[in-house]
Amino acid sequence: MRCRRPLRTEVGLAVALSIFSFLLLLLFSLRVSPPAFQSPEEPQGRPLALTWPPQPSRPPVFLLLVIKSSPRNYERRELVRRTWGRERRVKGTQLRLLFLVGTAPDPLEARKVNQLLAMEARVHGDILQWDFHDSFFNLTLKQVLFLQWQETRCANASFVLNGDDDVFAHTDNMVSYLQDHNPDHHLFVGQLIRNVGPIRVPWSKYYVPKVVIQEEHYPPYCGGGGFLLSRFTATALRRAATALDLFPIDDVFLGMCLQQEGLEPASHSGIRTAGIRAPSARTSSFDPCLYRELLLVHRFLPYEMLLMWDALTQPSLTCGKQLHIY
């Protein structure tokens, strides 16, 4: 019996069925195996290297620049040091810089990066590192450990800027704004976020299952890219953090802490954690005149940070009408 050659339509149907079966199998595997939810580690760690002990001879710190950084982000830390984060006096007040880091999850990388961080600590004295894996879900742990450290090492700092290592901060404007406030009163300002709740989609970076939180709405909070707080509020947050279970999204957790203390975050139009938009198609969103009156903008590449700092510090910079939003 002679075997016949399959018809073209039969071959096409077989291929289509194979592809369809593969897609069903892939979809099923995705549905039954979503990324595992990670809870933050418990705050049991101690700093590996506390390289910034308080020195009585130094002037009191008015604004402590606290920057969350991943261990490998050396270039970002260097650009912050060279630009807006440079330790200096502004309008008669003292600025200090501190980077918060954990350890790289990969042991081989961790050994190399820890050597780099130790070198940075010797040269700059601005690294505070703990022995936990530096990851998105451990940002809350990083915040809590910093608050504990501040209580004993830098409790007298009047105000704190808490931000990521890819923000651009106009520290002169911040000082002008903060000099009108009392550090012993409540202050917590940033880009306010209201009326949002947990994301229940397992494939989202911000996925939170109901077993962690039943409520469908978070308390008001400020975007974690950057916000300002007073030492009064830092003390309140530290107190609340000891009474609450750690929550994996750090900015939401701080909103929970404020709620625990009966305090509320506030909005400031000069803090843009979602970036800025140009007012017209003929204006670049990177125009320094758009940043001259702001306090903080999130998501800058290192070279952009250097260019913006250079532009804003040029005496020859001329712009139109000033907004005076601070």
From TrEMBL:
Gene Ontology biological-process entries: poly-N-acetyllactosamine biosynthetic process; protein O-linked glycosylation via N-acetyl-galactosamine
Pfam families associated with the record: Galactosyl_T
Leader sequence residues: none
Pathway: Protein modification
Enzyme nomenclature, EC number: 2.4.1.-
Gene: B3GNT3
Name under which the protein is recorded: Hexosyltransferase
Positions in coiled-coil regions: none
Membrane topology: Single-pass type II membrane protein
Cell location: Golgi apparatus membrane
InterPro entries from the UniProt entry: Glyco_trans_31
Top-level division of the source organism's lineage: Eukaryota
GO CC annotations, alphabetized: Golgi membrane
Family per similarity comment: Belongs to the glycosyltransferase 31 family.
Keyword field: Glycoprotein, Glycosyltransferase, Golgi apparatus, Membrane, Signal-anchor, Transferase, Transmembrane, Transmembrane helix
GO MF terms, alphabetically ordered: N-acetyl-beta-D-glucosaminide beta-(1,3)-galactosyltransferase activity; N-acetyllactosaminide beta-1,3-N-acetylglucosaminyltransferase activity
Main EC class the enzyme belongs to: transferase
